[in-house]
Amino acid sequence: MTQDTQTYADFSDRVGESLLQGKVAIVTGAGRGLGRCYALALAAAGAAVVVNDADEASAEEVASSITAEGGQALAVAARIGPLAVAQDLVHQAVSTFGRLDIMVTNAGILRDRVTWKMSEEDFDAVIETHLKGTWTCGRAAVEHMRSQGEGGRLILIGSPAGQFGSFGQSNYAPAKAGIVALGRTWSMELARDGITVNVVVPTAMTAMTATIPVYKEWAEAYEQGVALPQAARQDHALGGPEDVAPLIAWLASDDAQGVTGQAIGLGGDRLTLYSHPGELITADEPGGWSTAGIARAWSERFASHAQPSGMPPKPDPREHPAASESQNSQG
Ligand SMILES: NC(=O)c1ccc[n+]([C@@H]2O[C@H](COP(=O)([O-])OP(=O)(O)OC[C@H]3O[C@@H](n4cnc5c(N)ncnc54)[C@H](O)[C@@H]3O)[C@@H](O)[C@H]2O)c1
After folding, report:
1. Which residues form a coiled coil (predicted)?
2. Considering the domain boundaries, does residue 320 fall inside one?
């Protein structure tokens, strides 16, 4: 299945058809890629879905493909970022469908450049869309969910870049790491209201991933409908956007009521629970530390625990071409 060809009906096997009956969801950035699959999956599970995208035509296409198959959807073209946009989105969901249960903050852009070549505009645009856009959409949703008094679901979208750090993404990586911190903070603030807050860390072949040079060959193969090899689907947790959607549907469901404050990855065949930052080792110096004391403690006790930056090593995609492995598997 190539990207953006999935339909609402394709998700009925992967998500229970009545899992979200009677619920109302907003998915931001749902005109293509992952967000499109989230909207289709939530609709297939019975939810009425507000399909937001900055690109009006793609939001309309996704909403009409849902309604054409008997689902409920409304397209709202708007650029996520400002609070007023988020409040209008919530208002449109509530005035059209009567309530709001689920907010998926998926809208996102990349403006990659190494820091010393990155413009202030590219830094601001990424922070505005991802970090501020997540905060404004969450804030607007929570205002309504709290007054509704029946709990709710905030499903935020992180990235491996935010979990590990990522060369050339000094705007995107901290925005995504900030979203995980936001998820932890909101999970505490909203526990009493029965509103769960989790961060999904997706990995999938989309227009966004296709720009990553190391994935060029897998992206081309995927675009032509060639199945990705096991090294992609497992070691790189990289499949299609449809592979991630069942996690969104489950977190949105009543079944996941007890799950909050978590960062959960899904991509290809691999489901991952991420750890949160924690204290690795501590040392106490009665009366306080001197610089020389810190230097000694570092070399004697801390240095061996120093943490790496960047993604854990994975098999080289060039050694696992999609075409030859899928031909092998057919033969
Ligand atoms: N694809 C991956 O492997 C991957 C990995 C980690 C995280 N993510 C995250 O998942 C989300 C979706 O990524 P994708 O790969 O589907 O990207 P994509 O580029 O294919 O789709 C993003 C969609 O968001 C829309 N959009 C962008 N800015 C917007 C705004 N301000 N308001 C409304 N809509 C906006 C775009 O028009 C587009 O339709 C993003 O938050 C991304 O950071 C993706």
Report:
1. none
2. no
Please give the structure tokens belonging to residue 222: 């995927």
Q: Minimal CA–CA distance to 145: which of 183, 191, 193? A: 193
| pLDDT surpasses 50 at 109 | yes
| Containing structural domain, residue 25 | 11-204+240-273
Catalytic residue among 159, 170, 187, 253: 159
Choosing from 65, 176, 215, 253, which is the catalytic residue? 176
Evaluate whether residue 36 is within a structural domain: yes
Cβ–Cβ < 8 Å for 252, 153: yes
Tokens of 19: 């899992």
Q: Is the dihedral of CA 235, 241, 242, 246 positive or negative?
A: positive
Q: Within a domain: residue 131?
A: yes
Nearest partner of 51 among 8, 15, 83, 22, judged by Cα: 8
Indicate whether this model's pTM tops 0.70: yes
Domain count, the chain: 1
**237-288: per-residue pLDDT in tens?**
999 999 999 999 999 999 999 999 999 999 999 999 999 999 999 999 999 9
Place of tokens 């991802």: 130
Answer yes or no: 172 catalytic. Answer: yes
User: How, if at all, do strands 263-267 and 270-273 pair?
Assistant: antiparallel
Q: What are phi and psi of 296, to 5 degrees?
A: -70, -45
pLDDT in tens, 5-33: 788 888 888 888 899 999 999 999 999 99
Distance 304 CA to ligand 1 centre (A): 38
pLDDT > 90: percent of the chain: 87
